[in-house]
Amino acid sequence: MKTSPSIKLLVEDPIVVNPGEAITLACVTTGGEPLPTLTWVRAVGALPEKTVLKGGTLTIPAITSDDAGTYSCIANNNVGNPAKKSTNIIVRALKKGRFWITPDPYHKDDNIQIGREVKISCQVEAVPSEELTFSWFKNGRPLRSSERMVITQTDPDVSPGTTNLDIIDLKFTDFGTYTCVASLKGGGISDISIDVNISSSTGERTPATPGTLTSCARRSASSPAGRGSPL
């Protein structure tokens, strides 16, 4: 008696992997007469060129972010409707780190003053976003949220992937290099580190007048990064 196909995926959904890892998607028939044939398709675009197909198994030997997306196994035996099961591949990524300071020391009509509040914001793009964590350091030492140094891990008023460090009632003792480090909990991806220097003056600027501050920033890599510029 002819029956329509049924299948089962032998993988999790979603699948979260690091770039460069090999990934295998397996699909098996659980019913259907005559025996269904199995094929794999991608929701958007063709399968990656390096893909290896063998029966109900699809292997991507060295996955990249371009390979992310939804993959479906389809079983067909020309009886009834084909059976279809899908899984989503997520490739970890951490990129485009930037920062900004409030008030903006780079704007001629604004400045940072002793006794005022200063906010340092750090933003990155992370995949998957739920694995993103931030750490703050001052002069290389870990910072914890306190009454005068308030750390916000996610800011609902700005784009996702943003952390803030609010320095309340800025003091001269607050001068130093503040570092925001973005990481993914799953590991396997290099952290992004952004340094922001809060000081009474910088070597590249005219010395500030008493009671005001100027700021400069640099990335942890070899080349400098200006305000709001990507890493």
Automatic annotation (TrEMBL):
One GO cellular component term: plasma membrane
Question: What InterPro entries does this protein's entry cite?
Answer: Cell_Adh-Cytoskel_Orgn, Ig-like_dom, Ig-like_dom_sf, Ig-like_fold, Ig_I-set, Ig_sub, Ig_sub2
Renumbered to this chain, region (Disordered) spans 199-231
Report biased composition (Low complexity) as residue ranges: 217-231
Annotated GO molecular function terms are:
axon guidance receptor activity
Q: What's one GO BP annotation on this UniProt entry?
A: homophilic cell adhesion via plasma membrane adhesion molecules
In terms of Pfam families, this protein maps to:
I-set, Ig_3
Where the record annotates domain Ig-like, the positions are 5-91, 103-199
User: What name does the UniProt record give this protein?
Assistant: MAM domain containing glycosylphosphatidylinositol anchor 2
Could you tell me which species this protein originates from?
Varanus komodoensis
Q: What is the lineage of its organism?
A: Eukaryota, Metazoa, Chordata, Craniata, Vertebrata
